[in-house]
């Protein structure tokens, strides 16, 4: 039996181009010259150092972690869960996973978000957790709403959650977006449509998971995160793979 390779060659057709005419802001912020490699410094390849006691059970519960005592966030309650895996489907334990999102009306708790949906006073929109020995993580939250954005005349972002995975060094932070199975806005999103491969787009869609749902409480969605390899999850801050 052959031993799995430690690293795989990146698939450059798997990730989208940095510039896309239909995704207007990518045109101005995409590189205009050839990329260059910079040698990493010690500060980039060491750390971070944090105690696991700094991350509590409440940090993964966005329904209550910003709410007043006795109150909770408004919206459709959901569970988002899955595993963080390497390129050979092995679990990645003790990894910091962070999320942030809009509220159920599609508005972020940010001073520059001027969308007309109201702010939920009991929803902060962010959470964090650490994967267990099997690479497993989960969050309780509310399903975010769609919202309009100034791309073309009538573009709407599908419901989505931003996901960050932090490695063992400051330079090892990967960021992606999670969408929800069955959302018709996914196929119409100019950002999603920059991804050339249908299978790659599919890896950003969390699957409905009724087995993990809580009756009369929360619907569950499963979202596994593959850190690298030929078929890694698409990360927006690492557009060309490994």
TrEMBL record:
Residues 18-28 have a biased composition (Polar residues). Residues 1-28 are annotated as: Disordered. Keywords: Dioxygenase, Oxidoreductase. Pfam families: Dioxygenase_C, PCDO_beta_N. The keyword Transcription regulation does not apply. Gene3D superfamilies: Aromatic compound dioxygenase. SUPFAM superfamilies: Aromatic compound dioxygenase. It comes from the Bacteria. InterPro entries: Intradiol_dOase_C, Intradiol_dOase_core, Intradiol_RC_Dioxygenase, PCDO_beta_N, Protocat_dOase_b. Residues 45-229 form the Intradiol ring-cleavage dioxygenases domain. Residues 8-41 form the Protocatechuate 3,4-dioxygenase beta subunit N-terminal domain. PANTHER family: DIOXYGENASE, PUTATIVE (AFU_ORTHOLOGUE AFUA_2G02910)-RELATED, INTRADIOL RING-CLEAVAGE DIOXYGENASES DOMAIN-CONTAINING PROTEIN. Belongs to the intradiol ring-cleavage dioxygenase family. This is Protocatechuate 3,4-dioxygenase, beta subunit. It comes from Shimia sagamensis.
